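A sample follows:
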Amino acid sequence: MLVNSAHPLRVRDKAALSAPDESRPGVLMERQAARLLQECIRKTGGWDMIVPVSGWRSYTEQQQIWDGSMAENGEDFTRKYVALPGCSEHQTGLAIDLALAAEEIDFIRPDFPYGGICGEFRRVCTAYGFIERYRRGK
C-alpha cells in the first residue's frame, strides 16, 4: 500500500488494532503488524531499549499533529517532518515510529541510532516485514 502526498489514503476505516507493547497501550498497529513487531523486538532482545512511539493515527489525530507542529515549529519544519492528514502511512496501521528508550523522546523525530540495539533491529527487521522508510534528517 502506497500512502503519501501523491497517493492519499482512500479508505478511512479503522483497521483491527492492537498494541505491540502492553506497557504502551495507546500505541496501536494493525494486529498482524503488531505481532510481527513484537517478534522482531523479542528477537533482538530489545524490549527494554526500543520504545514504540507512534503507531496508528486517525485522520483527526494526524490533523492535530499537523496543526500543532505548524503552530509550534512553523511551516518549513512541518512540511519536512509531518505528513498531511490523509497522506500518512500511520493512518494505515502498518507504520510505527520507534525510539531508543530515553527519559525524553521527540515525538516527531524520535532518536533511533544506527548502532547498538537499534542497529540490530535494522539488521533483522526485514525478515519480519519492516523497512526503514525515513532515515535520520527526514
About this structure: The beta strands are 17-18, 29-30, 50-54, 97-100. The mean pLDDT is 93.
